Amino acid sequence: MLEFFEEFPEMSRVSLRDFKKVIDSAFRSFSRNNGETIESFFDPILWFLIWFEKLLLNTPWPIIILVVAGLCYLGARSWKLSLGSVLTFTLIGYLGMWQDTMSTMALISVATLLCISIGIPLGVWMARSDRVQSFVMPILDVMQTIPIFVYLLPVLMLLGIGKVPGLIAVCVYAMPPIVRLTNLGIRLVDKDVLEAADAFGADKKQRLLGVQIPLALPNIFAGVNQTIMMALAMVVIASMIGVRGLGIPVLQAIQNQYLALGLMNGLAIVALAIIFDRVLQGYGKRLQKGREGNKND
Amino acid sequence: MTDSKISIKGLYKVFGDRPNDAIQNILNGMSKEQLLNKHGNILGLNNINIDVPAKQLHVIMGLSGSGKSTLIRHINRLIEPTIGKVIIDGNNIMEMSKEELREFRRHKASMVFQKFGLLPHRNVVQNVSYGLLVQGVDEGEAKERTKVWIDKVGLTGFEKYYPAQLSGGMQQRVGLARALATDAEILLMDEAFSALDPLIRTNMQDILLGLQKELHKTIIFITHDLDEALRLGDEISFLRDGKVIQRGNPQDIILRPADDYINDFIKDINRGRVLKVSSIMEKETMTLGPKIISSTSIEEALQIIVSSNKGLVTVVDAKGKTIGKVTLENAITSIARSSRDKLKKPNYK
User: Fold this and answer.
1) What is the DSSP string of B178-221?
2) Does the beta carbon of A195 lie under 8 angstroms from any beta carbon of chain B?
3) Which residue of A193, A215, A289 is in closest CB contact with B117?
């Protein structure tokens, strides 16, 4: 009797080993049988990523800098930010990080696009149905808290080392904020305004596109922002499974204790993050003009 | 009955779980209190029957909790009734399909809200044209068609402003223009002016009365303010605890309050301003004093009586025919009744 309390009644070692074996071999045979199909499913995304990376790498650097400065101005309407981005990119290039930065930018852009195009519709769907919300919420929790290496393992077994597993790793980690904030934003839309839309006979589409999405935009923008920040944070992890970019030198620096190398590439990631953030925030604020009540827009 | 534009028949609304069981209890004679205590259901509307003729401005007057906002939302079915009918132009709104209901809301009845319900990300023009855009009118044409309404409510020059940049009164002008722009025959106004300052409220009432003279819409106007109800209403329905306790024109309500509750309500009203000479005149065919039209208020009539030396006025109808007389004594008694009422102790629950 005393034994029962002192020792946890655990599974016998043999059956536990068999249990694990069954799972492992089942997944292995699954990946052997379906690996190629799944791989080909991701091909379009891979092609797009490669195409975009090549585009960034093959375009002469002055043009890239001009385009970035132009986008900064279009987004945030700030000369200071444009100038800052020109200086930052020049410095990055001068310190020999141009190619890695372009690769990282390609990865982040594609990952963000992917997250937005899946995340916003999912968030909208969640906002419409409490049942969908109660089903998706725990999945988002798992996506954000599960150790990255744990979900990388099956992905690697299925797809091997390369860009696509890297992209998936980034998206799994970076998508939850946009889903959550889209859901939240739509749920927080003023009920009185929605009622007015109903009273004028708006149908579902007119409600969504004319009222809910525009009014949820500040929150959706915060979500996009978070997604980009989290994607950038995943750059180093992605480099561990063969994605080119600023993460690789950081990884080398960790392995060989190269302080300067790690610092420079790390700061380049930070610089990218700040530029992305300011441009988007500025753009989001401009979309909200008039709402705060200042008379000179 | 046939000439009524809006006809609400036997409308009940029960809030809470299993409303259909609850309504059976009510129909079998259970009281509102018993329903709440036994089943936890709240009876929001209790056998409402109202007929509104076309082109009437019908005020539904009640305090908070009387069910007035619930009632108006049944007319365009923003709230589903438990049982009952709302018949507009011969069609029962409650039997409409989703599409029919949407068409009805787009073209037949528009609404003005207490909290305005404007779209904060759209400027004045875009807000006013909202109803038209929902109908499917293209943006350029909608903009053109809304110009006249923006002008009519006095918002010219503010087209590019956003709602947050406007005062409450201005925002409600936008709300009113938005509702008028769809050319709907029915206008539902849910405490439309209650959120406004007194002076601005009076100003908006003037705008509404002016527009109504020109447009002749069928208007359902919800308010908790008796002065507003008496000023605007062609007819008033008094709502209390989800029930209509009196229905009549402002004169009726003041002269013949149905119960002590309403009596208590109207005791502070300036009767001289609300009552018309037609309500208090004695029949008379001879012309004895200065002529006044039957729709003159007693307040004005008094001034005329006092300034003439006859001690009375002759009342004529709109065609100038003599129909009655009002003496100084009549006029004063009709106004003074209110002070006598004040001494009475109200004994309603």
Assistant:
1) HHHHTT-SEEEEESTTTTS-HHHHHHHHHHHHHHHHHH--EEEE
2) yes
3) A193
- Any alpha helices (H) in chain B, and if so which ranges? 19-27, 32-39, 68-75, 98-107, 124-128, 130-135, 139-152, 168-181, 198-215, 226-232, 250-255, 260-266, 271-274, 277-280, 298-307, 328-343
CA distance A292 to B239: 39
- The model's pTM: 0.82
Burial level of A104, CB count in 10 A (0-12/13-18/19+)? buried
User: Between these two residues, B1 and A98, which has the higher pLDDT value?
Assistant: A98
Query: Inter-chain contact A290–B123, Cβ cutoff 8 Å?
Result: yes
**Is B165 close to A203, i.e. CB distance below 8 A?**
no
Beta-bridge partners for B235: B58
A44 CB-near residues (< 8 Å, 6+ apart): none
Token pair listed for B21 = 């069981």
Place of tokens 């690789």: A248
Closest CB from A196, A217, A291 relative to B117? A196
B17 in helix, strand or coil?
coil
User: What are the Cα distances from residue B224, in Å, to B108, B193, B210?
Assistant: 26, 10, 22
Is pLDDT of B2 > 60?
A: no
Q: Smallest CA–CA separation between B128 and chain A, in Å?
A: 12
Residues of B in contact with A199 (CB under 8 A): 76, 78, 105, 110-111, 113, 117, 188
Q: Is pLDDT above 50 for B39? A: yes
Q: Which residues pair with B13 in a beta bridge?
A: B45
Tell me yes or no: is domain A14-296 CATH 1.10.3720.10. Answer: yes
Residues 22-81 of B with CB under 8 A from A: 76, 78
pLDDT tens-digit map of B94-133? 999 999 999 999 999 999 999 999 999 899 999 999 999 9
Q: What is the pLDDT of residues A251-290, one digit of tens each?
A: 999 999 999 999 999 999 999 999 988 888 888 888 776 6
Q: Does A193 touch chain B (CB under 8 A)?
A: yes
The average pLDDT across A220-241 equals 90
Distance between CA A73 and CA A81 in Å, rounded? 7
Domain ranges of chain A: 14-296
